[in-house]
Amino acid sequence: xRTEEKIGSLLKGSGLTLSAAESCTGGRISHLLTTxxxxxxxxxxxxxxxxxxxxxxxxxxxASTVEAYGVVSSQVAAAMAEGVRRVTGxxxxxxxxxxxxxxxxxxxxxxxxxxxxxxxxxxxxxxxxEGPRKANISRFTTAALHFLTEYIETYLKHxxxxxxxx
Length: 166
Prior knowledge:
This protein is an alpha/beta fold. 42% of the residues lie in helices and 21% in strands. The radius of gyration is 15 Å and the shape is globular.
């Protein structure tokens, strides 16, 4: 089972929802999530915030955070994930910010910060790989979906949906 299908099986029928904020993955996470039949029942949408100005104005990433830590940072990834949850009202979100190509002087090419956010808070992961741009984007996407799956599974281990009465 593909990771995006596993996410779908975890969320379908649960009433829990998902959104994404993508920079270096350019919408690839959103694309894969929406290839799953029935994803419209839990996937609310995304913001592809390639520009810093969109991270700040749409997702609410503080300019001071970008200035202090850099756009490729745990803090910016976390703020993006929290921002897209706020914008969409989703239960969970995933965010990516990184360098599919080139270095920023601090991190090498092939670096991405991934954030997963939800009712249990926000967690981040630094992932690094080597390869050409397209391969890095694909690897970043895979790593983000795996990280999100682990976050959701951990949450669901202790989540008990309210009993529904007819």
